């Protein structure tokens, strides 16, 4: 083995490699630089530099020179090389090193220590990183070994799952650290804002203090001047010009003093205003926090009350014999608990009012007590969700609508309409939506002409319209109050439409569509054009005809979409022979007017007036998805029908229903809807032609029988006359 390798110490391998690198650098540098560096290094290490043998050639080490220890062999050879190299350059002599002052050597050694300290720190960091990498490699090796040593695939799969769990745990740790970092950054920003406000306040106080000091200094100077200057001897009275000049100067001085006083007062008032503003902000923040807490407590109160009512309903269904009277009493108290309950200062304790913004009873007066309970539970849950979402969802939505400005078709408007229009903006938005639909039909004065035509001649559908007026929304105070003007408005709107569209005239269900339009728009003519837009523009042709052909087609389309989107539910309903058309036909005919509460219903209409009938399909599917699990638990056809009669009363979360309709039901292309409608329309036409053919055949067979009927038989009229 070469002697140089024998002398290297494995214990201090890093030091030996570093000294070797310094030697290589010294050979490449200029002689003066290398000499100074090696002398400094030798001085730092505290070792004596051996004198090279004269027989050794310049720039080479003696091959057989004795080494006292492997650790110090390499540093000892460095001065020999340096001196050999210095002999080859006559410009630098050994006296240059001896003449250097001790201070320069100390400075050089300190710099060397700093360099070596930095290098040592970097080497330690590198060793730490290598240790981490080695530990990771060992763990990976152990995992791979255990994976390869596993006898069965189950064990290997468990090892892979363990790795996945470790990865997920690390991901959660990273997310937690990121959240902690964000919270710390937020707190730092709050602290910086507070510091900035305090600095501004200190600056204002300093300005005010400085202004006061200036005034004090001027007053002190004036007083000192008055004391130091003796009163002058009386002089001759000045002439009028000098008197005017003096009076102007005095006036200017007074004005300057007044200006300084006003400036000081202004600074003081500004500081006071700043303090009052800070106090007002704090009070506003406290008020907002208290309002949020109050809303949360009211929401919790609604949830507790709804759970209490749900518990009473379940006990009632269980038919506990001895407790039936007690349950009936508790239910009556729960249903009438918020009527007449008020504090001394007339503050409502119950957050659920009797009527909503559009006059609908929040708890309708159903004949069945079970439906009353469901309606009360639904009202409480809806109010609870509204209170909880007020700050996070509803208020930002109102601000976006307030900042929207002029309406124009856009993706943003579409998303806002799907989220729902606030009560104060809904009339304006609906008028714009209706105008887009009927602008090709609208003519000035058309509505008044139709009304005058109705006054001149009675329409054949007037009797049926009069009968339906009393059946329109019996749970709405605007249509049940004897002094309300809404029934008369509704009558005129329906008569005008029957004259405007003689093909349809009047169809049951149009009264509910026109009533919803009246409740929102309030103006007769606007409600009339809204009804025209729905019947003649949004809905397909023949939707409200005598045969209701398009309505039947949509029911078949809905069956196909339910089979595609909710196959488990349709299989369950098919197993129990449930015909959904008995439930959903009226949904489509009146756009959920009889099925959903007003808060959810009007959100459906917001999107329906903009996007069309596709919204009706989306919400119909969403209603079944919302209650899918509850329906799947029912195992009897009659029980399913009874549940479907009122299951829309269990929908309380409008945001959840909207998310299902516009997210979970995707994709929902309009092209697919048109194709399904065309296919089912063709199929229904074929069925109707077949029925017409069977009818004609029956009439042909019946005609000869009528001719052969005996003449001697007594008719029913004759029999009655004899009696």
TrEMBL record:
Domain of life: Eukaryota
Signal peptide range: none
Compositionally biased tracts (Acidic residues): 714-723
UniProt-recorded Gene Ontology molecular function terms: GTPase activator activity; small GTPase binding
Region of interest called Disordered, as start-end residue ranges on this chain: 43-88, 223-244, 699-723
UniProt cross-references to PROSITE patterns, sorted A to Z: TBC_RABGAP
Domain named Rab-GAP TBC: residues: 420-612
Presence of keyword DNA repair: no
Biased composition (Polar residues): 43-57
SMART domains in the record: TBC
GO CC annotations, alphabetized: cytoplasmic vesicle; cytosol
Chain coiled-coil ranges: 99-215, 245-272
Compositionally biased spans, kind Low complexity: 70-79
Sorted UniProt keywords: Coiled coil, GTPase activation
Basic and acidic residues: compositionally biased ranges: 702-711
Name this polypeptide is given: TBC1 domain family member 2A isoform X3
């Amino acid at each position: 083995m070469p002697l140089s390798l024998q002398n290297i110490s494995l214990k201090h391998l890093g030091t030996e490699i570093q000294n070797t690198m310094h030697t290589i650098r010294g050979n490449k540098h200029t002689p003066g630089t290398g000499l100074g560096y090696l002398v400094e290094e030798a001085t730092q290490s505290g070792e004596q530099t051996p004198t090279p043998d004269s027989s050794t050639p310049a720039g080479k080490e003696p091959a057989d020179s004795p080494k006292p220890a492997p650790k110090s062999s390499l540093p000892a050879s460095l001065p020999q090389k340096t001196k050999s190299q210095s002999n080859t350059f006559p410009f630098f002599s050994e006296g240059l090193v001896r003449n250097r002052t001790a201070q320069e050597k100390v400075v050089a050694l300190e710099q060397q220590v700093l360099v070596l300290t930095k290098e040592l720190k970097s080497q330690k960091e590198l060793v730490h990183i290598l240790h981490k990498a080695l530990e990771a490699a060992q763990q990976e090796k152990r995992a791979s070994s255990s994976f390869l040593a596993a006898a069965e695939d189950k064990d290997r799969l468990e090892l892979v799952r363990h790795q996945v769990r470790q990865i997920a745990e690390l991901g959660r740790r990273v997310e937690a650290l990121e959240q902690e970092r964000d919270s710390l950054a937020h707190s730092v920003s709050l602290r910086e804002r507070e510091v900035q406000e305090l600095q501004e306040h200190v600056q204002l106080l300093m300005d005010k203090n400085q202004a006061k000091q200036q005034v004090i200094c001027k007053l002190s100077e004036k007083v000192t001047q008055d004391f130091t200057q003796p009163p002058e001897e009386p002089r001759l009275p000045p002439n009028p010009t000098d008197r005017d000049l003096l009076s102007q100067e005095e006036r200017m001085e007074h004005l300057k003093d007044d200006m300084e006083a006003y400036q000081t007062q202004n600074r003081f008032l500004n500081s006071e205003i700043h303090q009052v503003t800070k106090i007002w902000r704090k009070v506003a923040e406290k008020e907002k926090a208290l309002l949020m807490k109050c809303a949360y407590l009211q929401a919790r109160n609604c949830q507790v009350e709804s759970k209490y009512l749900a518990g009473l309903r379940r006990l009632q269904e269980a038919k506990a014999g001895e407790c039936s009277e007690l349950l009936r009493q508790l239910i009556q108290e729960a249903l009438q608990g918020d009527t007449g309950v008020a504090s001394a200062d007339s503050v409502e304790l119950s957050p659920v009012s009797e009527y909503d913004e559009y006059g609908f009873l929040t708890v309708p007066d159903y004949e069945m007590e079970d439906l009353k309970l469901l309606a009360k539970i639904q009202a409480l849950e809806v109010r609870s969700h509204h209170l909880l979402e007020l700050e996070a969802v509803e208020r930002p939505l109102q601000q976006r609508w307030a900042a929207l400005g002029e309406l124009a078709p856009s993706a943003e408007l579409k998303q806002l309409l799907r989220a729902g229009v606030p009560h104060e903006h809904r009339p304006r938005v609906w008028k714009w939506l209706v105008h887009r639909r009927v602008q090709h039909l609208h003519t000035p004065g058309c509505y008044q002409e139709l009304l005058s035509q109705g006054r001149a001649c009675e329409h054949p559908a007037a009797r049926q319209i009069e009968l339906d007026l009393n059946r329109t929304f019996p749970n709405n105070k605007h249509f049940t109050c004897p002094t309300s003007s809404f029934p008369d408005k509704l009558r005129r709107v329906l008569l005008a439409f029957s004259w405007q569209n003689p093909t349809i005239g009047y169809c049951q269900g149009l009264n509910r569509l026109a009533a919803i339009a009246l409740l929102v728009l309030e103006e007769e003519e606007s409600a009339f054009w809204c009804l025209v837009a729905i019947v003649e523009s949004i809905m397909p042709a023949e939707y409200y005809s005598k045969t209701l052909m398009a309505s039947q087609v949509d029911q078949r389309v809905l069956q196909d979409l339910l089979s595609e989107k909710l196959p488990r539910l349709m299989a369950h309903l098919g197993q129990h022979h449930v015909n959904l058309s008995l439930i959903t036909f009226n949904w489509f005919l009146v756009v959920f007017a009889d099925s959903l509460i007003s808060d959810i219903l009007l959100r459906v209409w917001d999107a329906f007036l903009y996007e069309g009938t596709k919204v009706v399909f989306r919400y119909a599917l969403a209603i079944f998805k919302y209650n899918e699990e509850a329906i799947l638990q029912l195992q009897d056809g009659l029980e399913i029908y009874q549940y479907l009669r009122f299951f829309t009363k269990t929908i309380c979360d409008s945001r959840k229903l909207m998310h299902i309709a516009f997210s979970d039901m995707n994709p929902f292309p309009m092209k697919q809807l048109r194709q399904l409608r065309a296919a089912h329309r063709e199929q229904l036409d074929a069925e109707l032609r077949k029925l017409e053919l069977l009818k004609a055949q029956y009439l042909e067979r019946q005609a000869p029988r009528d001719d052969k009927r005996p003449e001697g038989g007594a008719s029913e009229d004759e029999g009655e006359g004899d009696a």
